[in-house]
Write a structure and sequence with these properties.
Elements lengths: L3 H24 L1 H26 L4 H33 L4 H16 L5 H13 L18 H31 L1 H12 L4 H40 L4 H11 L6 H16 L8 H26 L7 H36 L4 H7 L7 H10 L3 H14 L2 H16 L1
Helix pairs in contact: 2-3, 2-6, 2-8, 2-12, 3-6, 4-5, 7-8, 8-9, 8-11, 8-12, 9-10, 10-11, 12-13, 14-15, 14-16, 15-16
Length: about 425
């Protein structure tokens, strides 16, 4: 048994190592993001590669075929989306007067015609946020023309970084799929502690569960984006492919992603809506499309596709989303769900990382008898009664006495 100073040193060492890992992940994000993307793609594409191998293809042809198909779809989709973004940037300024009219109409609907006290408040807030320059001072700012080298440095460097990360992630994904057994054996060697059989079963079960979960999530989010695209196209909303892609990507963000993803489509529809429904019919229909489809996915398709829940806590998912977004920006926000699932499975199957299951899991941290005793020790009789009544409702009052109240009395003694 560890003494107090040994336990303190262990906790301090674990804290220092954790902070060092987080620091490296933040400073080396240009390398860590492609690695995380490659791990995510390897988990998603592994079942597809396995199916192709069982169909008669060898390992290398199956991997090359799968990656070629994925890259072709990604490049084609990127080309279409880039065209839509370019057209949006060119045509949206032409709708300036219509957007102004809609904003004036919305302001009138919220604050009246401006003669009331609430309208005056809106005018004052607007003046504080975006004050008008003095009319008696004419300031003319002339921007110096940028040279070709400056333009290449401004736009070419970020594009080169993104393309380099994509190429690195693609190559790393290919080698992970080709050498997945070797990588699995190395993980077993690192985590096994001599328990080869137990660790092998744990790693195989974890990898299969993660692959099934992420593949089902990919299919569901893809179907969500396709239905949104078709629905917006039928409603007459321009650039439907762009809004569908945003909805597909943002749905990876837990709980709030769909509501963030609907904002661009609803705002664009609000700015460019036709006259039917008084100019409000199309935005309301777009909002109803998102809400109805999200409710359908949450209550019908997700339980059927995902099966047994991965056991993630809602609060843990939201905190993890903020943490990964802080480390890696938008990419971290999108990858927060898959990364959190991987950490939870690691905590469930590897003893030394068991604290991750406590932090991220949705299972009660305390057993009913311990929770009952803890609440009584805190003089919280109401919550203690809730614990006992919950057990009594699930089983029988006698079971609640035997499994909750009597053990709590023994602990009190």
């Amino acid at each position: 048994m560890l003494s107090d100073w040994q336990r303190a040193i262990t906790i301090m060492s674990a804290t220092v190592v954790t902070l060092a890992v987080i620091t490296v992940m933040y400073l080396a994000s240009s390398i860590m993001i492609p690695i995380a993307m490659a791990i995510f793609l390897a988990f998603v594409l592994s079942p597809i590669v396995t199916r192709l191998e069982r169909a008669g293809l060898g390992r290398s042809p199956a991997v090359i075929t799968t990656l070629t198909l994925v890259l072709t779809v990604a490049v084609g989709l990127g080309f279409v989306v880039s065209q839509q973004v370019t057209r949006l940037a060119e045509t949206l300024p032409d709708r300036k007067e219509a957007i102004k009219a809609k904003l004036i109409e919305a302001k009138t609907w919220i604050g009246g015609d401006g003669s009331g006290r609430f309208g005056d408040l809106l005018d004052d807030v607007t003046a504080i946020i975006s004050p008008k320059p003095p009319t008696n001072q004419a300031i003319k700012v002339e921007e110096a023309e940028s040279t070709l080298a400056e333009r290449l440095k401004t736009y070419g460097s970020p594009a080169a970084d993104v393309l380099g990360q994509m190429a690195f992630a693609s190559i790393l994904t290919m080698f992970m799929l080709l050498k997945r057994e070797d990588l699995r054996n190395r993980v077993i060697r690192l985590l096994g502690d001599g328990k080869v059989t137990t660790t092998t079963k744990a790693v195989d079960d974890a990898s299969k569960r993660i692959s099934r979960y992420l593949l089902a999530q990919l299919f569901l989010n893809t179907a969500f984006g396709i239905v949104i695209t078709l629905g917006l196209f039928l409603l007459g909303v321009k650039y439907a492919i762009l809004w569908g892609l945003i909805a597909f990507i943002m749905r990876y963000v837990p709980y709030v992603g769909t509501w963030i993803g609907l904002i661009p489509a609803v705002l664009f529809s609000f700015a460019t809506a036709p006259d039917w429904g008084g100019g409000w019919g199309q935005p309301i229909a777009v909002l109803a499309l998102f809400l109805g489809l999200e409710l359908l996915c949450n209550n019908l398709f997700e339980p059927y596709l995902y099966g047994r829940s991965m056991g993630l806590s809602e609060v843990a998912q939201l905190i993890a989303a903020g943490f990964w977004a802080f480390l890696w920006g938008p990419i971290g926000l999108v990858l927060s769900g898959p990364l959190t699932v991987c950490l939870l499975v690691l905590g469930k199957h590897v003893q030394r990382f068991g604290f991750l299951e406590v932090l991220l899991g949705d299972q009660p941290a305390l057993s009913p008898k311990v929770a009952f005793y803890q609440r009584l020790a805190a003089r919280d009789q109401d919550e203690a009664a809730e614990v006992a009544l919950e057990v009594a409702n699930e089983a029988h009052p006698d079971d609640a006495l035997d499994s909750v109240v009597v053990p709590a009395l023994c602990m009190a003694r």
